[in-house]
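User: I'm writing a short report section on ligand binding and want a predicted complex to refer to. Could you take this sequence and pyridoxal-5'-phosphate and write out the structure as tokens? A short remark afterwards would be nice.
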Amino acid sequence: VASPAYTELEVAMMDWLGKLLDLPEEFLNCSEGPGGGVIQGSASETTFVALLAAKEKSVRDIRKFHPELSEAEIKGKLVAYSSNQSNSSVEKAGLLGSMPMRLLPSDEKGQLRGETLLEAIQKDKEQGLIPCYVVANLGTTPTCSFDKLEELGPICQKENIWLHVDAAYAGTAFSCPEYRYLMKGVEYAHSFNFNPHKWMLVNFDCSAMWVKDAKYLVEAFNVERIYLQDQHKGLAPEYRHWQISLGRRFRALKLWFVLRIYGVEGIQKHVRGQIALAKHFEDLVRADPRFEVCSSNMGLVCFRLRGDDGLTVTLLEKILERKNIYVIAGHFQNYHVIRFAICSRLTEKKHIDYAWNEFCSQANEIVGINKYETKAEKKLPTIQIDNARCQKITDNEKSK
Ligand code: PLP
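Assistant: Sure. The structure tokens for the complex follow:
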């Protein structure tokens, strides 16, 4: 009632965006069902909001069959799960929501697998605990790995656990059909999130969240007051019940601008261009026997100097001291790695070459120019999305 235009534009933009990513129809505001999208401030906020909704849902579901149990008794038994590769914000959501967050081991590709989740759930159930919430990653922070949603989804469905998908960074890639196979199983999710403010050219802050049934948010967050009442109930989503704050920003407007300026093809071109730049960087690293690539997914390449971890730590220190490029540290299978992420829409091949020269000049000082005559045996398996498969999908799309 205070600003119908911004609610209307947010409803429309979340549908445009949902269609851009080819999300299941049930997530869209325009679908027949109770689903819809809302813009939150951050992925952290969204993971927390979904956890609170999951918590309320569990309490209601369990009390239907066990009315003798108090709300406090049930809440004290709820547990959540994610992988040890998930972003710090996932653990934080558990902290804020007073729900233990089990960070389960990922496999050698950095993916959370169904059998690992199932084992953890069974163990907790044997202890009388109640599994409530799972956060699956599509694009982990350390290496941009993709959890096996099609394995996690059916388990969550069977165990009546809320499945939240954190695709904060990599979600933008689903605007390209060739990457959508990585979100296979998304139909099992209760909520899905990605940040247009990360990779989709929208200024901070803009975090897109979809739920299959908005009722769970409203049940968790609805607090009425006389000064909040109006005569138009049910005509549009009351977004104040879908979030923590009462007041709202007009974030849909900047989304509208970006979608109108770039269009679907413009966004796809941006994503493909950045992935191609990352591939160029990866090729440069692979061609130098002093280095090894640990993972290369989307716009993120993780690599290290072969040999002792100290070499990579020194390289990173030197690079940061010089302040010509900015990269950060990561861990991969207990090794130190450097995370090289391409983020800016202004990045071109010449900037990648410049960055590579920076690494080479410092590596020359640390290990010398001819450290290896021939390419040494690779020590680490490389995590990589299936480029051949992507190419096939792109070709099919083109021929369509
Ligand atoms: N999830 C993933 C996978 C991320 O990579 C990040 C940030 O890098 C976040 C969540 C947190 O995002 P935000 O700053 O929007 O809370």
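A remark for your report: The domain at 4-249 is CATH 3.40.640.10 (Aspartate Aminotransferase; domain 2). The chain has two domains: 4-249, 264-373.
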